[in-house]
Amino acid sequence: MLDANAALRAKVSNPPLYRVSVALAALFCVLALLFFASPRAEAQANDGTAQALKQITGLVVDQTGAVIPGAEIRDTATGKLLGVTDASGQLTLTCAAPCSVRIFARGFNPTNTEWRDGSRIALAIDPRSSGPVSDTGPPIPVDRPAIDARIEYTQQPTTPPAPASVIPPVQDTVSVTAYRTPLGELESPASTRTLTTQDLQQSAAITLDGQLRLIPGAETFRRSSSLVANPSSQGISLRGLGSTSASRTLVTEDDIPLNDAFAGWIHWEELPELSIHSVEVVRGGASDLYGSSAIGGVINVMQEHPAGNLAELKSDYGSEDTYDTSLLLEGKHGPWGALATGGILGTDGYILTAPNQRGLIDVPSNVHAQNGLALIDHQRGGLRLFLRGSAMNEARNNGTPVQKNGTRLWRFSTGSDWKPTGDGFLNGSTLTFRAYGSAQHYRQTFSTIATNRNSEILNRFAKTPDDEMGLVLHWSKPITPALLFLAGADTHDVRAGDFESVIKSGNLSYVNLNDRQRQTGAYAELLWSRKAWTISGSGRVDWFNNFDGQQWLPTATPEPQIAQHVFDPRLGIARKIGEHFALTGSGFRAYRAPTANELYRSTQVGSLLTLPNNNLLSERATGWETGIAMEQRWGTVRTSYFWTQVNRPITSLTINTTSNPMQLKRENLGQIESRGVSLDLEVQPTRWMALQGGYQYTNADVTKGTGDAPAGNWIPQVAHNMASAQLRAYRDSIGTISLQARISGHQFDDDANDYLLHSYFKLDAYASHDFGKRIELFTSGENLLNRQIEVGRTPTLTLGTPRVARIGFLFKLGPAAK
């Protein structure tokens, strides 16, 4: 046993691909020199020999399919007018792919976009602006909300020389999640960030939680990657509010919540990589439209939709035996579209325990997961119908031979999007309906670990099945060209069980539980936008019920029933100053209901055992923020001051430090408060380079404490200072290089602030090169400097991901490349 564990530790300390990772770091340095110090490459790009021009015919339409004549197409970098769409909404441009353009139309938000050979791009345009968005923009009468423009085109190669290469431009941020209707960067009172397809693809991280860390302030409960983390540490945190096993941020996909129905954490390996188009993040309370869990904000995952006949295969492999392979197939025939995608990903992992604290039982933490998704939709005129199903299976090793868990999750959804046409009352309105459900089987084993970590004993085995069903209905209607009304309702029903075998002093006993939760809400919003002003007012009433709870120990005992009614309003104001600046402000109330996991089930991470509490009440938050936004041709900058106060926050209080494992219990604390400033920027100083990033300072602490969490203590797992940056550069002759850096200040792992986690700096990189239209080779590296990142003290010190290098390819087949 000793020899086997010694071999495992040697594998982690000296990974077999270490030399590959060193070579990778050298490769990035070489590529950087080529980008910034190669006059030959610059000359080649400037003399036009890099790539031939193409004629690209585009069609601009709104979401109902109606064409948009008179839309201006301008060069992104110079602002030069390239052309105007004709009466049929079409325009033929001659440019080098990828073409970087900006679309203007009166009554619509200006929108940046780019496309490579054969790509199809959907653009979101806001119709509520009453004035022209371009000084020379043609008048277009608009009375429709939430318009999308779609660019469809064909190509014919020509021989004229090409201008210098460009990279994907900085995209205009269009927020869908903040108000369930599109708002431009300067019109949105909320603080929003969007991770585009390029941001996600050119991130060194392969999982969504790692990619979200490009946004400062976005962090899971513990710093570890979901590839090696216990699921109970994967709740997402925004605005410095922290989390427990449950997330204080709501994650959705197409109006459907993705937070675990029983426990509230996130299954980051659930969605196939190639099925994700982009991710929109709204920071600040949003319970006025989304109900429970949206205290810190909303993360909306935007899915790909079938737009043509296309096949993509992406695969990579790297150190720690990390692998990721995804396949996407999609087709379009008339009004019918179909999409199927799936993949396998995982890692053999590494030992989380710090080297000087390891014992014989310490083995690598890892995950091996499979996922899949299928979608069929039918769209004719203003009506879209769809049917979608997905599945995920994963198996995890949580760092010892005994501690393991696994999840099988099936989801289904169906619904419609209807945009009536004609001259009746419903003209211009949008009606959205969703019906969804899921079935999950979760299993986990727990152990008691000896103090010297040389042995462990199985103490509990749990099976936790749950089923959920939900309905969503919302309707929007422009009352006048400047006033939009939105109303909706949703309900979410969860039925869960927990069946545990408990081993104590060699005796076997059973603890069984059945529980049911239901959350139902109704909401309404008025959004007024005229000239320089945008004002929104909204409110939601929620009914939360926890009932039919029953536990067997072994006799049946009914659990307390919970019934709460809450009202959450929000008011937002944005005032544009000229064409490039805006002042914003908003205030809100929000709430989060306790999950069944927090009420009834014990969880364990390492040597920390957290006990449930069936008397928990919902968390209630009050907050506001104000800020300044600037939008220029070269990019956008937004800064905000925010303040959020959470009453009755559910936290894990330490109750016994001498037991093995140490015992904590979930309690409603008195009050926590998070206040600070954030800065976000997306700039493109040249056509071949873009920079985006941000900084967040948060004073997040306990203002009304209890027991081991007195007033003045920091909120666990929240750093006061966080910053991130992504620098991307592109040239045809070399390819793409992306550097990502993240800095986080020190933080505490526990409510008593006894366990300090030091600050860290992490540098990642990504590089790719196209070989023709179909094949792209790429390589990436995480934690290139191989810094030691402290993740948790349970109370054993655990560490984050060491240096990991990967190499892979992307193969595309079909007339369209996304």
3D structure, described in words:
The protein has 818 residues and is mainly beta. The chain has two domains: 2-16 and 217-222 and 236-813, Maltoporin, Chain A (Beta Barrel); 54-200, no CATH class. The protein is built from seven helices and 46 strands. The strands form eight sheets. The protein has a 22-stranded antiparallel beta barrel. A five-stranded mixed β-sheet has the order 9-14-15-12-13. A four-stranded antiparallel β-sheet has the order 4-1-8-7, with no helix packed on it. The longest helix is centred in the N-terminal third of the chain and has 20 residues, at 18-37. Mean pLDDT is 82; it is low at 1-52 and 118-177.
Q: Per DSSP, what share of the residues sits in E-state strands of 2 or more residues?
A: over 45%
What Rg do the Cα atoms give? 26 Å
Can you tell me the CATH superfamily of the largest domain?
TonB-dependent receptor, beta-barrel domain
General form: globular
For the largest beta-sheet, the strand count, sense and barrel status come to: 22 strands, antiparallel, barrel
DSSP strand tally: 46
CATH architecture of the largest domain: Beta Barrel
CATH level-1 class of the largest domain: Mainly Beta
Alpha-carbon distance between the two ends: 51 Å
Please, what is the average pLDDT? 82
Number of domains: 2
Low-confidence stretches: 1-52, 118-177
What proportion of the residues is helical, as a percent range?
Answer: under 10%
Structural class: mainly beta
Count of discrete alpha- or pi-helical segments spanning 4 or more residues: 7
CATH topology of the largest domain: Maltoporin, Chain A
